[in-house]
Amino acid sequence: MPPFTVLHVCLGNICRSPMAEHLLRLVVGRRLANLDPGADPGELLRSVSAGTGGWHEGEEMNPPASRQIALRGGVVAGFTARKLTGEHLAEAGLVLTATAEQSDYVVSLAPGVACRTFVLGQFARLLRELDLAELPPAGTDPRTFTARATALVAAADRRRAHEEPLPGDDLDDPWGRGDQTFQRIAETIDESLYALVDALLPGAPRPA
Fold first, then answer.
1. pTM of the complete model
2. Side by side, which strands form the sheet with 45-51?
3. How many Å apart are CA 140 and CA 146, to the nearest integer?
4. Can you give the pLDDT at residue 133?
5. pLDDT tier, 77 (very low <50, low <70, confident <90, very high otherwise)
6. 207/141 Cα distance (integer angstroms)
7. Percent of the chain scoring above 90 in pLDDT
8. Which of 22, 5, 24 is nearest to 195 (CA)?
9. How far apart are the first and last CA of the chain?
10. What's the CA gap between 47 and 157, in Å, rounded?
11. Max CA-CA distance within the chain?
12. Could you give all domains of the chain from N- to C-terminal order, each with its CATH number?
């Protein structure tokens, strides 16, 4: 069974979305290490990213962004930016964008993914309003994990109904700014992704 795919989207795919891609891998890996050390994170979840524009296609992650990943114990070697395509969207069980404008772009490119496309901050906010007891049981095998993830995305879509994202749901663009700004954005991404992992793999405490 293929892993559940989360696609992170920003403008150029060298700052916000690659940070989210790598931070989600880190969070899931650490949670599984507590819950089920024998489980392979890559069999459960595939975290990837792309940009709505192709200006930086083939480039490495922006250095301040890669430093935030390295500071948290991640490895960014081998990453190259790519431009978003309809094929990327078709593969994704969940699409998380940095801003509402990018979410609109995703839906215009592939209207069928509207039900599973959210601004990252919006999605984290919606998760906190859901009754997670109504979801399928959590588990560390691929089939159980994917069933819960798919149900979680559907529940979040029902919860938002036709409500638009809030301005505060958007992630600031740190491009051209210093490490302090990148740290703030990385921490915001981290907080939102922990809300997702807490919903998918409950039962282990978040590291202090």
1. 0.96
2. 45-51, 4-10, 94-97, 117-119
3. 10
4. 93
5. confident
6. 23
7. 90
8. 24
9. 34
10. 20
11. 44
12. 4-200 (3.40.50.2300)
Mean pLDDT of the chain: 94
Determine the average pLDDT of the residues in 94-101.
98
pLDDT band at 207 (very low <50, low <70, confident <90, very high): low
Residue type, 43: E
Long-range contacts of 132-138 (CB under 8 A, 24+ apart): 132/199, 132/202, 135/199, 138/200, 138/201, 138/202, 138/203
The predicted pLDDT at position 206 comes to 54
User: Is the model's pLDDT at 204 over the cut of 80?
Assistant: no
pLDDT of residue 203: 73
